[in-house]
Batch of 2 targets.
Target 1
Amino acid sequence: MGSRWTYSELKFPSNELERTLIAVKPDGVQRRLVGQIIQRFEQRGFKLVGLKMVQASHGILSEHYGELRTKPFFQSLLTYMSSGPVVVMVWEGHNVVQASRKMVGQTNPAEAPAGTIRGDFSVHVSRNVVHASDSQEGAQKEIQLWFPAKDLLDWDCYDSNMW
Ligand code: ADP
């Protein structure tokens, strides 16, 4: 018998693993798109390490979107984002921040190609279905804002860690 590897021996080194914050916005929840959005991240090979449904307050949303505070659409953005529940998730995997942005598509769905989440499910920038962190630094801040560390689960995923 030759030597046999185990799945756990094939994991990425932990310093290659990134995390990002993905949120299904209130329009995505209302339109029952949560399952399809989760499915795309699972199929791509990313690992879900945190998940919750919340009615977001203006306080947390103001912090989340702090860089947009001076934009003319800021107040309507807060109204939209607090209009119903959001499903907030943390996904982990190799290059997940950049890959997620590509999967989500451009901010304005009119510019997002078919095959992206926004390109497939939305038409207007003010109702673009999903949020994805735009940088590793941004992801770290957003994850800390939305999730206490104890609510993120570091579980062994034998499949996607192989790649
Ligand atoms: P992204 O969500 O792609 O990272 P931004 O950080 O620039 O984009 O904007 C945050 C969110 O603000 C967008 O996803 C969208 O919901 C909203 N938004 C951005 N630009 C506009 C706009 N011109 N009018 C209305 N809402 C906007």
Target 2
Amino acid sequence: LDIVMSKRDLVGRTVLVTAGGTREPLDPVRFIGNRSSGKQGVAVAEAAIARGATVILIGANLEVAPPLGARVVEVGTTLELQMAVDAEVATADLVVMAAAVADYRPTEIAPTKIKKSSDSNTLELRLQENPDILRQISTNRARDQVIVGFAAETEPDDETLLQLGRAKISRKGCDFLVLNRVGWTEGFASDGNTVIVIDTAGDRVGEASGSKLSVAHRILDLVFAAR
Ligand code: CTP
Ligand code: CA
């Protein structure tokens, strides 16, 4: 229904969406990752396509099929995501960073499977911080681009979620931050979502609740309304 009713208001615009979650290998068979399915980011790509945009979808370990009509670039790690974003960002009028990005990667990747040690029952991993892609593209933007970040937080209520969101958007330098609450049982693999969108001033510009596709359309409405 969303698709049938879509307005074609993004014809001539290019939208770059990152979706999914990056994974950092420890050895040939293991990784450090997160529970992002990619559904909300894929829904943003789908909504933008329906509205006539040219869509580039950078997918990190997507658990759902990308929409027809997007140019898809597949990545695994945060460094690969960074390279793909750097290669594609110049043409984008809107960048939506929905991907859940691994903040750290192992300082070294073991060339063979890590074996259990016989002399210790603990294992220490040493991690190196990954680059902050959203902050970099927000800082380096050359022109009038709209940049949207996402933050999934385990805050207990909207007030603390908003406080955290305000601090985060000022650190990132993006134009909008889409906030949602996540937990052991809410958020990730589900088909629905509830979000609050804030701007650089930290003001609440809107909220949305419903299917991830309807939430995606609402996010596009809010961020393009500000143009
Ligand atoms: N992000 C990014 N590069 C990173 C980490 C995050 O581009 N290395 C982006 C995400 O895609 C998302 C936004 O930044 O759009 C917020 O991610 P989040 O993990 O909430 O922010 P962090 O600054 O990593 O803060 P936290 O300590 O809460 O994880
Ligand atoms: Ca993070």
